[in-house]
Amino acid sequence: MIENSDLEANGDPEFMQSLARGLAVLRCFANEQRPMTIAQASRLTGLSRPAVKRCLHTLVRTGYAAQDGVQYALRPKVLALGYAYMSSSTLAMRAQPLLDQLRDDLHESCSLGVIEEDEVYYVARAEVSRIMSIALRVGSRLPLYCTSMGRVLLAAQPRGDQEAYLRRTQLRQCTPKTEINPSKLLAILEHVAEEGYAIVDEELELGLRSVAVAVHGKAGAMAAVNMGTQAARVSLPDMRSRFLPGLRRIARNLEAMGHD
Question: Angle at CA 57, nearest 5°, toward 48 and 25?
Answer without folding.
Answer: 50
